Amino acid sequence: MKKMKFTEAAPTAGLALTWRDFIPPLFSLHSKASLEAKLASFIGVDEAQVECSGTAALVVALEAIKMLSDRKHVVISAYTCPWVALAVIKAQLTPVLADSRPEHFDYCEESLKSVVNHQTLAIVHTHLAGRVADVEKTITIAKSVGAYVIEDAAQSLGAKLHHKSVGTFGDVGIYSLGVGKGLTIFSGGVVVSANEQIREALRRVSNHLPRNYLVELRRSIELIAYYFLYRPLGMGLAFGCHLRDKLKRGNLIEAVGDDCSLDFPLHKVGIWRKWIGAKAADRLPEFIEKTKNLAEKRLAKLTKISGVSVVLDVKDAQGVWPFFIVKMPSEEARDNVLDLLWNKGVGVGRLFIHALKDYEYLAPYFAGAKVQNAQAFAAHTFIITNCIWLSERDFARICDVISEQVAHV
Ligand SMILES: Cc1ncc(COP(=O)(O)O)c(C=O)c1O
């Protein structure tokens, strides 16, 4: 391949902040509604609760439903974010893996049916990468054993199924406001439920969380840094240098941020970050529309490459597009694309390095779990950003590299 120079792109399409977001609501001419109120209206629920991360939102959800049942097992997808397993363990529950279906992250129906029983407290159903997975099937299976469904829409705030927000089909829904997500307060999460009994339990759990002024100060500084650096010139500094350093050392897990641990903060979110999130939330619908239009054009290019598939939504869904999950015909072809593009900082990389059971720190919890589809999915896929400042010329060049590698292998 000729030496190519790309513009440094963000790994996902996130909503940038503007200086106006930092004006206190008292002096602002725009809507002064709270972040909670704006999120509730955006998602289409009566109430939304903001927590300090998506993981914290999941812990709060699990602690809340634990108050309503004595069951201890929580089924999670074999291919998902490691934080999901850690949230279950933090809540002192037992995570149980169900395999994904071939060539997708969504559950394999047979595998899911085989692991649920009358010990199952909840099934966590995940909509990864803005893609809407088949939550209705999961709900049917959960109902058959009297388990709750928690929808993990950490990466899919704004995605819809039958024109209704994902996260509102199950008993509880969670979303992430972490860095790199559509709307961010650097680290934050949201939990919703339509069930008043669960909502009351969610409030009770959240009210018991402490304040942590030190972590809150750190997050506030990080949010200011996000304002300055989430742009083409800042990206190399904020993300590219770290990425290249980790790749050079061969530390893929740290390169994608999969170096998770049980020692994560659980605390109340400060009012200042919530103000900023509330201001930015006004621009979210327009941003989602813009990235959707971009994604349509980019998808048309990607799907023209023979031998390659892109993970899409279930029927009658309207997903959001932070990035694309691309599946290659072989692990070798996938690795060749990454060898050529990952360290360029052009927004080509990996989502999660392993299926959950293959992370050293999670392996003890999942010995004996059979999750071949999830392992194959982890080995054959990579992601391409849908960042708005990635030029169409660079996107076309990425597609050329993929075509060449498919043909080569
Ligand atoms: C599917 C999924 N669930 C949960 C989380 C946890 O969210 P957070 O990073 O805000 O803690 C993530 C993080 O990206 C995720 O991708």
Textual characterization of the structure:
The chain contains 14 helices and 14 strands. It folds into 2 domains: 19-207, Type I PLP-dependent aspartate aminotransferase-like (Major domain) (Aspartate Aminotransferase, domain 2, 3-Layer(aba) Sandwich); 232-259 and 283-408, Aspartate Aminotransferase, domain 1. Helix content is 40%, strand content 13%. By secondary structure, it is of the alpha/beta class. Strands 1-9-8-5-4-2-3 form a 7-stranded mixed sheet, sandwiched between helices. It is globular.
What are the defining features of this structure?
Aspartate Aminotransferase, domain 2; four-stranded antiparallel sheet; 2 domains; binds pyridoxal-5'-phosphate; globular; alpha/beta; seven-stranded mixed sheet; Aspartate Aminotransferase, domain 1; 40% helix; 14 helices; 409 residues
Helical run tally: 14
The residue ranges in which pLDDT falls below 50 over 5 or more consecutive positions are: none
The largest beta-sheet arranges its strands as: 1-9-8-5-4-2-3
CATH superfamily of the largest domain: Type I PLP-dependent aspartate aminotransferase-like (Major domain)
How much helical structure, as a percent, in the residues? 40-55%
- Separation of termini? 15 Å
Write the CATH architecture name of the largest domain.
3-Layer(aba) Sandwich
Shape by Cα distribution: globular
Quick one: how many beta strands? 14
